[in-house]
């Protein structure tokens, strides 16, 4: 049995750190920066494509490379750091394809992002595909067909992340526990797109 | 019998659970080795925030590299199928399109594979082949099929690189014959590799219906590779 008069070490330093962490406006500055960096630079590169290079191919490769980096970082890093959401696909032993959407429960010990970071995340996630859809129509109506292929590729890369994270948010808001097992219940709903995929 | 059972569980004899204490615990349902690894990995990756980014990058790069090796030796393996990814196909498509640049046919007023056309042919072709195999009742999923078709473009991309090197030496009959042999060999290799993965998932009797579009797809790409001529 513990002696009640024993000296107990009080760790104020850790408390200070905890409090600083909890009251910070942005807990993951690097993740927030990179979440927006690649997408915005890709859009700017598309708009300034005439100044960057005369060669269509190099512009295409540059924008697709930027958007691939963006896709990877948003899917694997910034989603779970800023809002605690994650989605992926796995193939089980029968060869069936399974899409898993996961939402982390908000609790005090979590290092998930603050409200400001969540706002950065969702705004960046939603506005950029909308801008690319505008580009789709401008290139369609100005009949610049080869730019259309670039815009379609960009839209598919950006919309994939948007759709995945919206599904994750739906999992989280259903109030169920955040684990992939219950995520599967939502996947068993008749869903035309993922039924094919 | 009862004595034996009691002896086996002798160590538990002083454990008693009263009726009104709720017994609770976590039951994690294993859905397969990959998912339970993920669940355990989830906790680790959520808690070690800075370290995994490099780990994740390296893991993805290693996965892509291992798939390239599996295309080189196409035997029945589940690596391409189980952990699909589309980074390899994207890289191969961009490489092929870049290698097909700078040809005599690349100017605006002539026909010939422009950059965006190669992209569109590869991805649209893959999507249509995948839809075809799914409509024929294949069990492979959409992205798995895209992954296989994309990775199996690798021999043709290598052939394109070889052709460009050969064309540096001149574009006479000899170089044409060399290029023809190389392109034909790589076309056969691509088709063989992809049908090794795709056709197995089909009910018998429909294999040729699935193989034929794949054949056509790689034939078109091989044709683009073979008919490439550098600008004078």
TrEMBL record, chain A:
Any single Pfam family the record assigns to this protein: DUF846
Annotated family: Belongs to the TVP23 family.
Keywords in alphabetical order: Membrane, Transmembrane, Transmembrane helix
Assigned GO CC terms: membrane
Protein name: Golgi apparatus membrane protein TVP23 homolog
Protein topology in the membrane: Multi-pass membrane protein
InterPro entries per UniProt: TVP23-like (IPR008564)
Membrane spanning residue stretches: 30-49, 55-72, 120-141, 147-166
Subcellular location: Membrane
Automatic annotation (TrEMBL), chain B:
Assigned GO CC terms: Golgi membrane
Membrane topology listed for this record: Multi-pass membrane protein
Coiled-coil features, chain-numbered ranges: none
Region spans: Disordered: 21-47
Record's keyword terms, sorted: Membrane, Transmembrane, Transmembrane helix
Ranges that cross the membrane: 84-103, 115-136, 148-170, 176-198, 210-229
Pfam family name, one: Yip1
Main localization (coarse): Golgi
InterPro entries referenced in this protein's UniProt entry, alphabetically: Yip1/4-like, Yip1_dom
Residue stretches making up the Yip1 domain: 73-224
Compartment annotation: Golgi apparatus membrane; Membrane
Protein family: Belongs to the YIP1 family.
Protein name, as recorded: Protein YIPF
